[in-house]
Electron transfer flavoprotein subunit beta
Amino acid sequence: MKVLVPVKRVVDYNVKVRVKSDQTGVDIANVKMSMNPFDEIAVEEATRLKEKGVVTEVVAVSCGTAQCQETLRTAMAIGADRAVLLQTDVELQPLAVAKLLKALVDKEQPQLVVLGKQAIDDDANQTGQMLAALLDWPQATFASKVEVSGDSVTVTREVDGGLETLSLKLPAVITTDLRLNEPRYVTLPNIMKAKKKTLDTLTPEELGVDVTPRLKTLKVTEPPARSAGIMVPDVATLVDKLKNEAKVV
Ligand code: AMP
C-alpha cells in the first residue's frame, strides 16, 4: 500500500511574523522556514504505518518553489521513501494545490493521502477536503488515531465536545490533528541518508493543471496592539472594574 503525504513549506512556528509596510502580505524575506507542523505529524504517521508493515511506500510531495526541496528532504529524513516537487513560482491557493495533488494521485495511485489539517501560514483548512471532493474519495479530517485493516481505515476524530470514530473504505483522504502522534527527532544519519533518496520534479504544465490564483488579497494588517494589564488590590475592585470599566459583567 502506497501513502502520499503532502508537506508545505511555511514560516517556522516560532517566528513572529511582521506585515509588510505596503500591507500586501507578510514579510518572509530572511525568515526561518520549516515544514508545516501538522504535515510533520502526517509524515510521522505514514512512517509508523510503514514500520508496522501496513504500508510499503511513503511518498512526500510539496507544491511551490525550488526551496521546497529542503522540506522534502526533511520528510525523507523522518521516513518518507522518496519525494516529488511540483514546482512553480506562482502563489498557490488551496484549490490549486488540491488540483495538483489530484493530478499526482492519478499518476501515483496511492491508497491513502495523509495531509495536515491546516497550514499554519494561511490557516485555510481547505486542501484535504477539496482533494477528497476532486477525487470523490471518503475523507476523515482532524484525525487523532488511525488504524488500517484490510481495505478500510478506522479514524478517530476530534470534534467539539468529544471524539467521533469513522470507518472509511480505501482509497481515502485523512487530515491530521495535533494529538495523532509526536513526530520523532530527525537524526543526523537520517538527514545524510535522505540526501541520497529520489526527489523528482514536475511542473503544473506537465500535469496539465492551471494554478492561476482565484482569490486576491486586498489588505493584510497587524492585529490591534493589546494594552498592558493592571493589578487590582482585591476582588471587590476587580468586580467593580469588570462592571463599570470593561462592562463585561
Ligand atoms: P491548508 O488547506 O492550506 O490549510 O493546508 C492543509 C494541508 O494541505 C497542509 O497541512 C498540507 O498537508 C497540504 N498543503 C497545503 N498547501 C500545500 C503545498 N503548497 N504543498 C504541499 N502540501 C500542501
User: Anything to note?
Assistant: The chain has one domain: 2-244.
